[in-house]
Design goal:
With 254 residues, the chain is of the alpha/beta class. The chain contains nine helices and seven strands. The radius of gyration is 16 Å and the shape is globular. The protein binds zinc ion.
């Protein structure tokens, strides 16, 4: 398990909760010394064009430092996916998040769809055919769903459930129904925690989610799995929730 991180992810590039000061620091504090950190390069404009319209890219470009931050986040997702292809599970500790970014528009603190760009880059290079994108953020990743709506090779699933057990069962049911894929990509949002906006999951549930995904990837695609950060806004608990998830995802498969 490796953590993809760049010191520049600490920069406050906007005034939204995903860009807040101290958010990255709260996670780094929990992961440093526990996992090897690797540094990504920014994505290229060609990478962005794998999923985004030129007009959208140009609009974000007008915003200067935010564009630079968004390119580096997409680059982080790409590196995490590359590590997964080498059989090393990886977590992109990146921002801005991406799952509300559609081909021609974005909202909800997102600009470019990091996870979709990484998946489409591997598909365009012919390195994978089928992928699944599992999103356990509190919010539905409308951007990711839009990008893959007419792509039968990539299945997007937003995990839902009004109790902890129903939530975990929903994840398991989705995975059990898909026994062929070349890569598991995960939009990892931590805003459904009991002390975050969603008020549901406990910290230990993130370890369970990580373990379920790890075991599934080991069974179906030689352990190729990567995750990237989406939401999660309570800095008091965000770090330990990410750590719990990585402890599950990085554990040797059962
Ligand atoms: Zn969210």
């Amino acid at each position: 398990m490796k953590v993809v991180f760049h010191e520049r992810y600490k920069e406050v590039y906007a005034s939204d909760p995903a860009a807040a000061y101290g958010r990255m620091e709260s996670i780094v504090k929990e992961l440093k010394g526990r996992y090897v950190f690797v540094e990504p390069a920014p994505a290229s404009e060609d990478d962005l064009q794998l999923v985004h319209h030129l007009e959208h890219i140009e609009r974000v470009k007008q915003r200067g430092p935010l564009y630079e931050a968004a390119l580096l986040a997409a680059g982080g997702a790409i590196l995490a996916s590359e590590l997964a292809m080498e059989g090393e599970s990886a977590f992109g500790l990146i921002r801005p998040p991406g799952h509300h970014a559609s081909p021609g528009s974005s909202w909800g603190f997102c600009w470019f769809n990091n996870v979709a760009i990484a998946v489409e880059k591997l598909r365009a290079a012919g390195r994978i055919k089928k992928a699944i994108v599992v999103d356990f953020d509190l919010h539905y990743g409308d951007g990711t769903a839009n990008i893959f709506a007419r792509v039968p090779e990539v299945a997007y699933h937003h995990v839902e459930g009004y109790t902890r057990q129903v939530f975990l069962d929903d994840l398991k049911e989705f995975l059990e129904a898909r026994q062929d894929c070349d890569l598991v990509a995960v939009s990892a949002g931590f805003d459904r925690h009991e002390r975050d906006w969603g008020g549901l999951l406990k910290t230990e549930d993130y370890e369970t989610i990580g373990r379920i995904l790890r075991d599934y990837a080991a069974r179906t695609c030689r352990g190729r799995v990567f995750a990237v950060l989406e939401g999660g806004y309570n800095h008091d608990v965000l770090g330990e929730n990410v750590r719990a998830f990585l402890d599950g995802l990085g554990r040797p498969a059962a």
